[in-house]
Design a protein that fits this description.
The complex is a heterodimer. Chain A is α+β, with helices and mostly antiparallel strands. Helix content of chain A is 51%, strand content 17%. Chain A has one domain: Sufe protein. Chain: A (Alpha-Beta Complex), CATH 3.90.1010. Chain A has 7 helices and 3 strands, in the order H-E-E-E-H-H-H-H-H-H. Chain A has a 3-stranded antiparallel beta sheet. In chain A, helix 1 packs across helix 2 and helix 5 crosses helix 6. Chain A starts with 9 loop residues before the first helix and ends with a helix. The chains are: A alpha+beta, B alpha/beta. At the A-B interface, helix 1, strand 2, strand 3, helix 2 and helix 7 of A face helix 9 of B.
Amino acid sequence: MGVIKTFYSKEIIKHFREPRNMGKMKNPSGYGKVGNLICGDVIWLYIKVEKDKKTGKSKIIDSKFQTLGCVVAIAVSSMITTLAKGKTLGEALKITKDDILKMTGKLPGIKVHCSILADDALHEAIYDYLLKNKLPIPKELQERHEKIQKHLKIIEERYKEYIDLEKKILEK
Amino acid sequence: MRKKKIYFDYAATTPVDPRVLKAMLPYFSKKFGNTMSLHSFGQEAKEALEESREIVANLIKAKPEEIIFTSSATESNNLALKGIGLDNRNRGKHIIISPIEHPCIIESAKWLESQGFEITRLKVDKYGQVSPKDVEKTIREDTILVSIIHASNEIGTIQPIKEIGEIIKRKSEILNLKTKIYFHTDAAQSFGKIPIDVNKMNIDLLTASSHKMYGPKGTALLFVKEGTKITPLLHGGGHEAGLRSSTVNVAGIVGFAEACKICQKEIHSVKSARGGISSKTKLFNGVKKESQRLTELRDKLIKGVLEKIKGSHLNGHPQKRLSNNANFWFEFVEGESIVIQLDLLGIAASTGSACSSEKLEPSHVLLAIGLRPQEAHGSLRLSLGRWTTQKDVDYVLKVLPEVVEKLRKISPFRNHGGNKNILFKRNNKAF
């Protein structure tokens, strides 16, 4: 007795109830905005990057997120920002959906795409940072960026009328 | 975490009323006979079955022999659509349904479509109501069946069933068809809550389910009007007038009947099932009394939510709705997140968000009433029942605004929240 059965794993519920790194970041080094309202999940992920004085490598010293979405979308946003913090850009790019799935525990099959969405957001944030600072962009990251954007286009065409409205607000 | 759990999902299923359980118990062990057996064990079961049939029939003013017991509303709806379709396809292959039916109707219709039938899906207005005039316009010479849900399981909107029934009957007569145009209604949500008279409402087939009205799961019925041309889906020993072969679930059916009795009990206790309820008795007063209590609670809940939460909207008809249904959508919050937050706080509710469905698509009902996907994602259904109290409603009104506020804080759009948001602004529709 006393234990409330929930649909999701303990870990998911923990991060969902008390998300870490939640909120907007002022002057981020880079940000990624993925998902859309039509599909129900939107993740905005921010990173702050600084050069490590000892190693000279670029490091994510802070990461924050804002998410509108389901339980898993919120939980994995919290998880991936936790994972990204303290990592060099190279290390952060190596984070995969499997790393997130390790943290989430068992996920219903149809929810796996939410974890990919969070991973996409981090990659987009790093891409944004590299682009802004005119740094070389790894081939794989370039490809992934294009894939995410392509997917976004498909959705945009399907729901053009809605997206136009959405854009107005995002550009503000 | 809150220890006490509050159930606000009576539209999904209801607990078995203790009185129902008590009535059922003997039929698991002592009175376990097979209704088809000639010996006393069988006859005892048979008697219980026929008594139950009478009680249940009474609730919708049907004849006992017009009640076919099934295992679920899904089965009843499958039998109604496919059974009528297959038996009447020589006369016509046109079937009319609403866009806000339960998936078992939608999928049965889809299957019939694949078998060469033609399905017309009507439109509904912003409250989810079908217009009887639309039904009239859509009926053709080869129309064999119209199936409209009595009350929506999601948004609670009640259809003008009587008017639709009249129109179908009139059209049938005008067209002078060999067999009539059958009218089926899925009353899974309304049975036991709204008075139904199959004769006055010109209903030929009606689906009802026990577990939505404090009876056990695994028992439901299809009312089939005398003389209806219908083909069975289950063939075998010829149970249920040949329309539904299967060993009879006597305990379940006894429970179903007891649940029906309780719905009427407030003014009149059904002492003897034999002979049913005397004609002098006002049949539905019991139903009405509980329904009035729930209507008051429901309206307090709706008023409270709309007042306390900015950017909240009611789905479905403000008055013509089930006494126990409240359905909202909230700007910039996702429904599944609300449901799980509420669950953690001890409140059980439901949503039509895509994230909560297997198909990852928002509710077809919410889309049919004109909600955009992003609006449907933010939906929440709270359904009340026999054990819902004023205190429960107060607790929801305390907790829900906090939950929505918390989720909006996580959302990137919170700064734009509230009514000013252009994302949710409509120019021509008053929602």
